Amino acid sequence: MESHFKVSPMLGQIQTNKIMKAAKAQMNKLLRPYGISSLYFPFILQLYFNESMTLKELNEALGVDKAHTTRAIKDLKKKGYVYDDRKTPKALKYKLYLTNEGTELALYLKSVVDRFEKSLSEALSQEEIKTLVSLHEKILAAINNI
Question: Which of 54, 57, 111, 126 falls 20 to 30 Å from 83 in CA-CA distance?
């Protein structure tokens, strides 16, 4: 007998959204004392792991648009976590760096990532994690082939 069960892409999307929402809420709670939200998380860590980057390099590494990166960096500068090496205010080419406070924040974020990973590794076996990654890759490939 042929199965007529249909997989709705929305089912996976709903579950993924719930997971992302829970992770963001937890991350926002942990970042509240630093005056930033989870939106800034990837920018801080990217600069930490690369020591310095241009806006273009940051855009490409994170896969976000230029306006989003510009706003995030402007906010992070204002909060004292990032600075640039511009020689003049109108300079178009410059590198971005973390301040000492930004580096401290990055180390804290790294510890948060480690805790998230530890929590996941305690909740799922290595085999389950491999299966989950494999399923996500298959779903992404299928969606890209539509």
Answer: 111
Query: Looking at residue 126, what DSSP letter applies?
Result: H
Q: Is the dihedral of CA 123, 127, 132, 136 positive or negative?
A: positive
In total, the chain counts a number of residues equal to 146
State how far the Cα of 123 lies from the Cα of 32, in Å rounded to an integer. 26
Q: Which DSSP category does 53 fall into? A: B
pLDDT per position as a tens digit, 85-106: 988 888 878 899 999 999 999 9
Nearest Cα to Cα of residue 111 among 20, 27, 19, 25? 27
Residue 83 covered by a domain: yes
Q: Does 6 fall in a domain?
A: no
Q: How far apart are CA 52 and CA 29, in angstroms?
A: 28
Domain boundaries, position 65: 33-144
Structure tokens at 11: 């089912």
**Structure confidence by residue, pLDDT tens digits, 36-72:** 988 999 999 999 999 899 999 999 999 898 999 999 9
What's the structural domain count of the chain? Answer: 1
